Fold:
Amino acid sequence: QEEKIFAGKVLRLHVCTMEGAEWLEEVPEDTTVEKLKERCLKHCVPGSLEDPKTVTHHKLIHATSEKVLTDTKTVLEENIQDRDVLLLVKKRAPALLPKMADVVAEEKRKQEQKAPDKDAILKATANLPARSVDRTVSHHNMRDFQTELRKILVSLIEVAQKLLALNPDAVELFKKANAMLDEDEEDRVDEIALRQLTEMGFPESRAVKALRLNHMSVTQAMEWLIEHADDPAVDAPLPGQPPAEAPAEGAASSAEAAAGASSEEGGEEAKDELTEIFKKIRRKREFRPDPRAVIALMEMGFDEKEVVDALRVNNNQQNAACEWLLGDRKPSPEDLDKGIDTNSPLFQAILENPVVQLGLTNPKTLLAFEDMLENPLNSTQWMNDPETGPVMLQISRIFQTLNRT
Structure:
């Protein structure tokens, strides 16, 4: 009677198996999960309790919470309520341990795929001859390449001018090319950007200078204007740029020369007019130093003329120009106007190339050579051009081929 009085509450639980069997189990709430599991196994697997591993190979899962019940805990401790559903599931068999031969083979495969360490590299390359690349020599070779390419362009310009002078339509072709140069976008100022700055209250001339210094970026130009608002030299013209009247005078002199040439006879008249157009094109393609680089180098104490020369020699590269100014200053600016030896194998190989020969008869090729001569940073533009790109590619290939031999 005492046992009945103090016995725990009896719960009726609905138990199911994966095979589809189901039944009701009535157990006191102080029954352990392991005892409940044994009672369930008697229903679904008769005689299975003879094997002690059967109980450990099964588990009870609470269907609602999907929780695996712990064998040592009671039904009450697992918070199981009356009429709850439990699922009796057989545990998965543990994976078989790999064979020793398989382990060895896998380890060997990993070792073969592993990158070699420093000691292995040194051991494998111990018998190879030592080679070291001098960075100063590489830089010197690159500078020699740029200098040699410039000499090639100088000589090719002379050849192209002579070939084009024989073309009866050369004057008209170069007049059109000259008109194209008048629309050079580098000399333009973005009107929308300029209007934005002037509407903020900045003077127009100062805003133009700021935009040119900052590659037409309104944000950077505004920051520059604010930073240099109290600078006494803020309105000074950019260093290295010719005065505004220079092009007009050049154009006037070219016009006068062209007018004078028109009074001569037919062949001489066309020749003189073509010469003047060549001169006018070259004046328009004068070297334009990077204003920021000029200012930075002048702040170091160098004179403006020598700074412009340094940037011209070193293709507008500020660091290289600084090294040139502090070093032996070779090559000199005068060396840049010298052409290549016309009897050299390199120049003969370039002239014998059919693509180069055809390109030299195109006025656009001459314009490209002139532009790259004075503004090397524009080389990419001409390399990507469908007319001048193949010519530049052949010149580069011939140079690299002969330079390796």
Summary: DSSP finds 20 helices and five strands in the chain. The chain has a mean pLDDT of 75. Residues 129 and 145 are 28 Å apart (CA to CA).
